[in-house]
């Protein structure tokens, strides 16, 4: 959605003739791009907000129902907070100019260059949202990262970065524990001297990583049981991308002559982050259902692209200014994990 307004003090007779077509270009480009989706829509929960920021609260789950004797009352149960995550909205702005000469020389029509600027202006808005989400995920083994001049908070409600080997869960009756969603191991290759990429190795690793995500504990210390269905890959690893697509798209198991079935076939969505360029081989896997239910990757749309325009009295140039406010953060870590192909065991909790 785009909110569009113009300065009411403008009285230049030519203004309306250039303003209308550019407005139409901006709005039309927005409609086209919004239908295409992107990293934000694929990997984040997108919600509207009308506040300064949004707070996500983590709680214990209710315990199981207990049997009672005939005529007896039910056991009282309560839930308590185990952590909160506040996500503050950030303002982003951009503007572009159409010169008076450009308007005059095209007889008040929409010049080709002006049309391109209007289209690029709208694309920049969608690119900002997608790059914001992409950067947050790529750098989420750190507590913060800088994007477009602002510092993003990449921690979850337990104050650890999204990807950490020491996440905390708060169990019932005062019990607590730690768990990891950041792993190292033989994911794509085996051996120490020459790391030969293997589809068979990845097929087995993917099954093991899926179990680790499925066994992620809730705040009571019980396995959540979510099924991973999304693989997120870097944009600079064509061989890794080829292996992953083969494993996920082949009906039979790869690398053997026993006609085994491939248990991963048809169960995965593969998403590439084009600006993720790690030196090593790594990937993320996620459960889209857990992401939604646990408020995992969150994107709050506080103010959509709001466009205003005016004529500069000193130059006669036409100005278009756009501003928007977003909030992005992670309410939980239990929906996603990061795995790095490595022979080095960082510690017992992060070894695959």
Task: Give a verbal description of the structure.
The chain is of the alpha/beta class and 352 residues long. The chain has one domain: phage-related protein like fold, CATH 3.90.1690. Helix content is 27%, strand content 30%. The protein is built from seven helices and 18 strands. The strands form six sheets. Strands 1, 2, 5, 16 and 17 form a five-stranded mixed sheet that branches. The protein has a five-stranded mixed sheet with strand order 10-18-15-13-14. A two-stranded antiparallel ribbon has the order 3-4. The longest helix has 27 residues.
**Count of helix runs:** 7
The CATH topology label is: phage-related protein like fold
What's the CATH C level? Answer: Alpha Beta
Helix content: 25-40%
Helix vs. strand class: alpha/beta
Taking pLDDT < 50 over at least 5 consecutive residues as the criterion, the unreliable ranges are none
Amino- and carboxy-terminal Cα gap: 44 Å
Question: How many structural domains?
Answer: 1
Specify Rg, calculated over alpha carbons: 25 Å
Total beta strands? 18
Proportion of beta-strand residues: 25-35%
Q: Which descriptor suits the 3D outline?
A: globular
Order of helices and strands: EHHEEEEHHEEEEEEEHEHEEHEEE
For the largest beta-sheet, the strand count, sense and barrel status come to:
5 strands, mixed
């Amino acid at each position: 959605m785009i909110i569009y307004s113009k300065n009411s003090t403008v009285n230049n007779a030519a203004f309306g003739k250039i303003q209308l077509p550019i407005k139409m270009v901006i709005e039309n480009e927005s409609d086209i791009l919004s239908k295409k989706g992107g990293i934000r829509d694929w990997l984040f929960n997108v919600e509207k907000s009308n506040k300064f920021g949004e707070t996500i609260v983590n709680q214990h789950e209710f315990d199981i129902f207990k049997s009672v004797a005939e005529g007896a009352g039910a056991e009282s149960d309560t839930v308590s907070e185990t952590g909160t995550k506040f996500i503050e909205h950030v303002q982003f702005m951009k503007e572009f100019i159409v010169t008076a000469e450009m308007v005059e020389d095209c007889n008040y029509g929409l010049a080709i260059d002006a049309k391109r600027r209007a289209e690029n202006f709208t694309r920049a808005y969608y690119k900002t949202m997608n790059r914001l989400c992409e950067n947050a995920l790529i750098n989420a083994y750190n507590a913060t990262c800088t994007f477009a001049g602002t510092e993003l908070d990449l921690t979850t409600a337990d104050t650890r970065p999204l990807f950490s080997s020491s996440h905390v869960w708060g169990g019932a009756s005062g019990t607590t524990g730690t768990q990891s969603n950041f792993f190292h191991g033989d994911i794509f290759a085996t051996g120490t001297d020459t790391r030969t990429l293997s589809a068979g190795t990845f097929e087995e690793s993917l099954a093991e990583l899926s179990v680790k995500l499925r066994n992620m504990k809730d705040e009571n210390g019980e396995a959540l049981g979510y099924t991973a269905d999304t693989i997120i890959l870097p944009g600079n690893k064509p061989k890794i991308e080829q292996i992953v697509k083969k494993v996920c798209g082949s009906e039979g198991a790869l690398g053997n002559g026993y006609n085994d079935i491939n248990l991963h076939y048809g169960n995965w969505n593969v998403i590439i982050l084009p600006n993720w360029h790690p030196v090593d081989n790594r990937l993320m896997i996620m459960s889209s259902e857990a992401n939604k239910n646990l408020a995992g990757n969150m994107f709050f749309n506080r103010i959509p692209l709001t466009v205003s325009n005016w004529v500069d009295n000193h130059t006669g140039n036409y100005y278009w200014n756009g501003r928007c406010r977003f909030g992005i953060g992670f309410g939980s870590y239990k929906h996603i994990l990061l795995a790095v192909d490595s022979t080095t065991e960082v510690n017992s909790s992060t070894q695959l």
